[in-house]
Write a structure and sequence with these properties.
Elements (H helix, E strand, L loop, with lengths): L2 E5 L2 E3 L5 E8 L7 E7 L6 E6 L5 E3 L7 E6 L4 E6 L8 E10 L3 E5 L3 E5 L2
Length: 118
């Protein structure tokens, strides 16, 4: 079991930057893959970026070159640096932790709002 708490959302102008952070507790962080997902009004939740326990990253095409996911196993945190933000990045962003053993277990944070608007 792992608990996740996101922080760092807010309002930013187009072209600006934000850094989201996810703090994990309750289990051995380094065994978990971490990810960020987002959900805009009227749309399904979609993957933004993931980072495996070994540090392999994966990004949605829409954010490649603009967003960077990272993790700090000592601090049990996973961050999402978002640059060159666009209005279409506006969404609630959710932190995800996943553990793959015999099956996959997913854990979610409560979400943090990111609004990109002038």
């Amino acid at each position: 079991q792992v608990q996740l708490v996101e922080s760092g959302g807010g309002l930013v102008q187009p072209g600006g930057s934000l850094r989201l952070s996810c703090a994990a507790s309750g289990s051995i962080f380094r065994f978990y893959g971490m990810g960020w997902y987002r959900q805009a009004p009227g749309r399904q939740r979609e993957l933004v970026a993931t980072i495996s326990p070994s540090g392999i990253t994966n990004y949605a095409d829409s954010v490649k070159g603009r967003f960077t996911i990272s993790r700090d196993n000592a601090k049990a945190t996973a961050d999402l640096q978002m640059n060159s933000l666009k209005p279409e990045d506006t969404a609630v962003y959710y932190c995800n932790a996943y553990l793959v053993l015999t099956d996959r277990k997913d854990y979610w944070g409560q979400g943090t709002q990111v609004t990109v608007s002038s």
